[in-house]
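Reviewer 2 asked us to include a model.

Predict the structure of this chain.
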Amino acid sequence: MEVKDVETKEVESQDVEKKTKKEKEEKKEGVMTRVMTFIKEEHKFENWILFAISIPLLVISIYILLAGIGNAMGDNESVNMFADTYFDVSVAGWGIFNQPWKVILISSIIVAIAAGSLIYSVWPVFVPSFKELKFVTWTDKKTLFANSLTVVCFIVFLTVLFYLFNLALAPLFNLMFGA
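Predicted model (structure tokens):
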């Protein structure tokens, strides 16, 4: 009888451990589900802020990347001079920026993050477009070729027309402005 009691107590304790473990996992999954739901929701205001921040961050990090590449190559041309004037991170005294390859690595990571943020912020704008593309009926090759040929011919015609206007009116403008 005692052996059975010990065995049932062990089974019960294992069941309790399994239940508490399962409850903890469910609670953890519930928190993660709420977090993922919040992340997946469209927050227009936050997307605009992310978009506004990611563009200057992308531009600045590209300039720093170019400066790092210029320093690594020993190039003292205009890109490197511009970067040294406005984005000289190598003299900041930080050990992380004491080598050009470190500047290139850090700025490449920042470029990737900024580009990802930019894509993430504008992605909700394009999602409805992808749904609408399912309803598009595409034209056949013959019609596409005919329409493309029409557009190219019209562009060539306008180019020739504006060139002839330029030839005809250039002497008049030279007389008027004395060039």
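The two ends are 117 Å apart (CA to CA). The first helix runs from residue 2 to 40. We have added this to the supplementary material.
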